[in-house]
Structure formats: structure tokens, C-alpha cells
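Example 3.2
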Amino acid sequence: MEKPIRVALFGSVTDSSKAVYAQNLLDALERRNACVGIDPPFYENLNAVPGIRVPRSARIAGEDFQPQLAVSMGGDGTFLTAAKRVGASGTPILGVNMGRLGFLADFSPCDIEMAIDMAFRGQLRAEARAMLGVAFSPGEPLDYPYALNEVAVLKRDVGSMISIRVEIDGEYLTTYQADGLIINTPTGSTGYALSVGGPVMSPQSDILGLVPVAPHSLSMRPLTLGGDARVRLTVESRNHNFLVAIDGRSQVCAEGVSLDVRKAGCQVRVLKRPGGSFFRTLRQKLMWGSDTRAREC
């Protein structure tokens, strides 16, 4: 008899109308005799929502739980949480999009049964997505020094900009006077970087993006770097500190600390539909070619 497949669940059910989808996921895994580990915040969330029955066999997924499959039930933020927990280990992540725009989650809530069935049969396509590795100099190593989407340095003082000195492979590039600067992967090109004018990149491209946030000079344009580029950022600010956001995980840094960012040696495996297309997703999500003007009756 085959051993049960270990599955980690990540998500958030804030709307009781969506509880049925969470129950469908739990039931689908229970029918397949899966060994289910639930991320602690999601476990508490599920137990607090009326009408959801968490199987007795399910447990809280601690650090000792090593899943063979991860399921993210939410938007891109939930997917990034799953990537932080299991991505570096190579565990494939199946995304169920409970939000609106998300690019990472490929399946709708109505497709849960089909998606789980295809995942257990090995019929889904796994895409390897590049991550960024981050290190502070000087500074202690981070608990999780990786980003699937982006690393951003941002101002803390609302009324003033920060100065960001940038070196590429040891060569001085420029000093940005701006509200911030984003280094993004191709996966992250449809996230924060896109909202500040960065280019959309095909996920399999071996490139990185360097995108300023509200630069003082209009000539400071987004820049595309080679995938093996090593980027060093050194920041000065009026209040002598700044924010670093690694896939949305923020922390305050003091002047005198440099950030070294480069492509990481590990990748995140994202499960996709067979025959799916990034360009089709772009057309659908961004409504390219659609007439979005209001139509008169």
C-alpha cells in the first residue's frame, strides 16, 4: 500500500461565502487519504469559520512537516507565503485563486476537485521560477533570504526621498533620488514593479528588472539586467533609516547597511495547467484587446 501524499495548505477564508471552497479542498484531500498539514494561521482561520469541518487527521504544519505538494488558497500574497515556507525545498505549489487579478494561482475555486485530481496523477506542468537571494553587509544572515517577486528599498519619511547608490557587478551605475527602487524577477514583473512602470517579462526569461519608484529625474527609466547580475544597493536618507521589503516582508534598516541582491541558487516550482500560456493569461488578466468602455443599452 502506497504511503499517503503529504500536502501543506496555505490560505485565508475571510468571506463565509467562500467557506464551501475550503471545505471542497479538505474533502478532496481526505478522499485521497492525503496526510494534510495546515499552516498555523490558516488552521486557526478554518476552525473559526462556521460550517467548515477540518478532518481529524489534519494537523498544524510545523517546521518538521515536509510536504510533497503545497496548495495555496488565496491571492498572490498567499502564494508568496507558501513559497516562503516550502519554495526553496523544491515542493511544487498549486495555486487556487480566491482573489481577482493574481498571476501566480492558475486555478479557480470551482476547479479544486479537478486540480487536486490532476496533481495526484502527475498531470500538471511544473514551471521553475527564479528567485532572488538577499544579504545585508554588514549584518546577520536572514532566516529566509529569498524573494520570488521582488526586493524593494523604500523611504520611511513621507516628506522626503532617499538616495540609492547602485553598483552592478562591482561597477557604479548611478545614484537614484527616489521614493524607492525595486529589483524584480520575471515572475515579479507583474507585481509591484508593473504598478510603477516596469516592463512585463516572460517568466522563463533569464533577466532581472531594476525599477525606480517615483524618481526625481524623468530620465531614470526601468533597466533590464542579465540574470547573473550582482546588484549592491547603498541607501542614504534624511532620517538615517529606510525600509526593505522582500516579497512584502518589511523591515527597517539603518544607514551604513548595503544590500547585495542576485539570483538565488534555488527555484520555486509552480504548478500550471497543461497547455497553459503566460501570454493568454496576460490577455485575460490585463484585458488586452478588450473594449472596456461602458456600453449603452
